[in-house]
């Protein structure tokens, strides 16, 4: 049974979320303030974090950054703000996905399941992309032989692109294949994660050689 | 043609330049005054000269009479020889005396008999034609001096002169007439000089007046021009512009009241902006603040809805109603938030190249079920091949969804026609129904927030009333237009026209904006 950490300051919403998640077969732990979030996370070692951005004590962005320093745990932001800046900042801080209030429990559950679903079992191969090597089984990524730490989502994004080098993926295709969205979602989700991925694997973020932007279309894996 | 054009241009310049007009009027008026003054001056000077000369001439005539008498004083008795000699002396004598060097003399015998004995001597250049019979009759009728103005010719030039005539009796009672011509050449010259001086002086004065009035008008017009310029700037939104205030004259008063007006205008605008920003923020805040409890309610309603089979009938129905109304509330809040974001100019579109046929296709696909439920046939006419355009696809889908929902809802079961077309610069989609339509006053409000075509109609889709208001914002965001035409009971046609690329002007729409006659 997967354990979900709910970081949400509104008691009623937190409780309702707990009911909703438990009725969908998840185990739940909770943090009501920003300051509680990290200790609860370390104590319960949840499989996924639902994170409200507006929190007393420590805000969601900071918690996100802190979690990302030690963990690749899937983080889904729960945001009342459809204000784009907050959403983008949350994604840049390391959140994998976001759900905007008010959401339906089905939507939230499907987002959670998408993030917890293991990668499809593939043959054990090493995919090479320039100086990067991806181990499809151990999910290890080496850059010039040195280990690069990617979150599971970043790994999935890189794997999707690198498995089909020079093939253009539109943002919608990536949302569908990496995030498993079956409906329209914000394509900036892709943009931000490509940026994060580049910052980890590219020599020069401003002049990417491995994950290339195809203007007006989307992205493709480097010229190898 | 050319002259006409120059005239037109000059007229235009004249009309548009206050200063030029003021200058022209000043110069024209002072010019007329100068002409009048010059005329009066020239007339009175001429008159004075003439009178002086006449008086002088008459005075000299008396002296001449006296001189002639002296000539004859030595003549006695009947010495004909002596008399003839004296008669011959009259002319040279009179030519030589006095100040008038240019005097002409004629001494004419008035009698009828013995004209051989009595000669009629005259100065060589005396033109006897000057002495008209009428004048002669006047001279003969009186003992006094008679005078008349005449024109004489001198060196081929006609100059005015005074002709003076007087009866004279030489001894023994022989009647003679003495005629003297005093030319007025000098007076003429003087008058000419005076007139030339007046004209020249007038012209110079006029130029000076012109120059000064130019200076004065530009000094007066400049603040007005400045004010006009500054008010243009203020009208264009540069509210910090002010006029310089110098001194305390009427222009300074104008400037300071202008500035005062601009100040209070700016203050008002600032207040309004602040109010508007506050309102926008309030709407935005309210929308945000509602989200957390709404989420809780929605999750709860969803949970109850999912458990409804375990409830009794009334509770079950309640759970269903709550569930459906939650969605409506949700949509309303989402629309409200979207509008408030537009109001706060916080919308950042994401443009990508898409095929409009594809966008329309997916919009049709998602609306098909609703159309079927209403029994409305969707008649689609799209061009073959791709209709590429640079759009924020979510917003365009939202517009299309809105237009299609509205059309189906108001079509009263009649077909709805969807067209796509393109030209060099623009892409257009039109959605035309043949339903209830709208009258002109309804048409004017079609894009207003929370406005509904017919409030008495049943709301079947639970639209928020913000759909078209958001759609028109979406269209404008793309530098496009969303237009509508309608007629009561004939239907309505909505047309969305978008530029193909965000860096080109879209020009004409490739589709007509018209409702169609019933098939």
Jot down its keywords.
heterodimer, A: 224 residues, alpha/beta, five-stranded parallel sheet, four-stranded antiparallel sheet, 8 helices, 12 strands, 21% strand, B: 519 residues, alpha+beta, five-stranded mixed sheet, 11 strands
Give an overview in words:
The complex is a heterodimer of chains A (224) and B (519). Chain A has 224 residues and is an alpha/beta fold. Helices cover 40% and strands 21% of the residues of chain A. Chain A has eight helices and twelve strands. In chain A, the strands form three sheets. Chain A has a five-stranded parallel β-sheet with strand order 2-1-3-4-5, with helices on both faces. Chain A has a four-stranded antiparallel β-sheet with strand order 6-7-8-9, with helices on one face. The radius of gyration of chain A is 18 Å and the shape is globular. With 519 residues, chain B is α+β, with helices and mostly antiparallel strands. Chain B contains eleven helices and eleven strands. Chain B has helices at residues 2-16, 18-73, 80-96, 133-141, 185-235, 250-306, 313-343, 356-374, 393-410, 440-445, 467-477, and strands at 104-109, 146-154, 157-170, 174-183, 352-355, 378-381, 388-391, 416-422, 426-433, 481-487, 491-499. In chain B, the strands form three sheets. Chain B has a five-stranded mixed β-sheet with strand order 6-8-9-11-10. Chain B has a four-stranded antiparallel β-sheet with strand order 1-4-3-2, with helices on both faces. In chain B, strands 5-7 form a two-stranded antiparallel ribbon. In chain B, a hairpin with a 3-residue loop joins strand 10 (481-487) and strand 11. The longest helix of chain B has 57 residues, at 250-306. The model of chain B has no long low-confidence stretch (mean pLDDT 84). Classes of the chains: A alpha/beta (224), B alpha+beta (519). At the A-B interface, helix 1 of A face helix 6 and helix 7 of B.
């Amino acid at each position: 049974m997967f354990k979900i950490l709910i970081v949400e300051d509104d008691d009623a919403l937190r409780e309702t979320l707990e009911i909703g998640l438990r009725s969908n077969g998840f185990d739940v732990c909770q943090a009501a303030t920003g300051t509680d979030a990290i200790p609860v996370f370390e104590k319960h070692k949840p499989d996924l974090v639902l994170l409200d951005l507006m929190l007393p004590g420590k805000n969601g962005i900071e918690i996100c950054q802190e979690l990302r320093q030690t963990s690749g745990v899937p983080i889904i932001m729960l945001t009342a703000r459809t204000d784009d800046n907050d959403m983008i900042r949350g994604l840049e801080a390391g959140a994998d996905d976001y759900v905007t209030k008010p959401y339906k429990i089905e939507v939230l559950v499907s987002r959670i399941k998408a993030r917890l679903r293991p990668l499809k079992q593939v043959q054990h191969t090493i995919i090479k992309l320039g100086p990067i090597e991806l181990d499809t089984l151990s999910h290890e990524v080496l850059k010039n032989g040195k280990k690069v730490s990617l979150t599971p989502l970043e790994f999935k994004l890189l794997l999707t692109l690198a498995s089909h080098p020079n093939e253009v993926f539109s943002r919608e295709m990536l949302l569908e294949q990496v995030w498993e969205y079956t409906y329209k979602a914000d394509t900036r989700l892709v943009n931000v994660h490509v940026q994060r991925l580049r910052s980890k694997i590219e020599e020069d973020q401003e002049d990417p050689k491995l994950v290339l932007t195809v203007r007006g279309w989307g992205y493709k894996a480097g010229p190898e | 043609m050319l002259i006409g054009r120059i005239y037109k241009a000059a007229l235009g310049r004249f009309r548009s330049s206050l200063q030029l007009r003021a200058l022209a009027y000043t110069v024209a008026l002072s010019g007329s005054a100068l002409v009048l003054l010059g005329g009066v001056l020239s007339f009175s000077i001429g008159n004075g000269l003439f009178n002086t000369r006449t008086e002088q001439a008459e005075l000299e005539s008396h002296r001449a009479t006296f001189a002639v008498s002296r000539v004859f004083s030595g003549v006695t008795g009947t010495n004909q020889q002596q008399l003839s000699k004296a008669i011959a002396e009259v002319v040279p004598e009179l030519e030589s005396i006095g100040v008038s060097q240019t005097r002409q003399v004629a001494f004419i015998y008035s009698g009828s008999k013995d004209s051989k004995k009595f000669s009629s001597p005259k100065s060589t250049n005396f033109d006897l034609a000057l002495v008209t019979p009428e004048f002669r009759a006047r001279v003969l009728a009186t003992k006094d001096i008679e005078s008349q103005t005449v024109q004489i010719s001198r060196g081929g030039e006609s100059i005015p002169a005074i002709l003076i005539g007087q009866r004279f009796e030489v001894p023994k009672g022989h009647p003679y007439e003495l005629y003297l011509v005093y030319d007025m050449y000098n007076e003429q010259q003087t008058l000419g000089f005076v007139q030339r001086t007046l004209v020249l002086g007038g012209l110079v004065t006029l130029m000076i007046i012109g120059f000064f009035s130019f200076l004065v008008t530009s000094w007066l017009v400049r603040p007005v021009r400045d004010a006009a310029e500054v008010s243009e700037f203020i009208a264009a939104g540069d509210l910090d512009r002010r006029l310089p205030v110098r001194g305390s004259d009427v222009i300074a008063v104008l400037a300071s009241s202008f500035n005062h007006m601009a100040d209070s205008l700016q203050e008002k605008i600032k207040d309004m902006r602040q109010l508007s920003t506050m309102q926008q923020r309030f709407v935005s805040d309210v929308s945000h603040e509602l989200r957390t409890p709404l989420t809780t309610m929605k999750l709860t309603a969803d949970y109850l809805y999912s458990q409804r089979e375990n409830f009794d009938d009334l509770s079950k129905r309640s759970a269903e109603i709550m569930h459906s109304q939650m969605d409506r509330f949700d949509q309303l809040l989402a629309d409200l938030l979207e509008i408030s974001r537009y109001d706060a100019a916080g919308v950042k579109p994401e443009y990508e190249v898409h095929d409009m046929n594809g966008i329309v296709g997916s919009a049709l696909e998602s609306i098909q079920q609703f159309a079927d439920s209403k029994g409305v046939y969707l008649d689609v006419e799209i061009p073959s091949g791709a209709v590429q355009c640079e759009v924020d696809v979510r917003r365009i889908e939202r517009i299309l969804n809105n237009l299609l929902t509205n059309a189906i809802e108001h079509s009263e079961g009649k077909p709805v026609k969807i067209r796509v077309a393109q030209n060099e610069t623009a892409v257009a989609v039109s959605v035309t129904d043949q339903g209830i339509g709208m009258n002109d006053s309804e048409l004017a409000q079609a894009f207003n927030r929370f406005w509904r075509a017919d409030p008495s109609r049943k709301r079947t889709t639970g639209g928020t009333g913000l759909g078209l208001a958001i759609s028109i914002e979406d269209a404008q965001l793309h530098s496009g237009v969303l237009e509508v035409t309608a007629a009561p009971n004939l239907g309505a046609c909505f047309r969305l026209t978008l530029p193909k690329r965000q860096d080109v002007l879209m020009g004409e729409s490739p589709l007509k904006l018209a409702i169609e006659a019933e098939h």
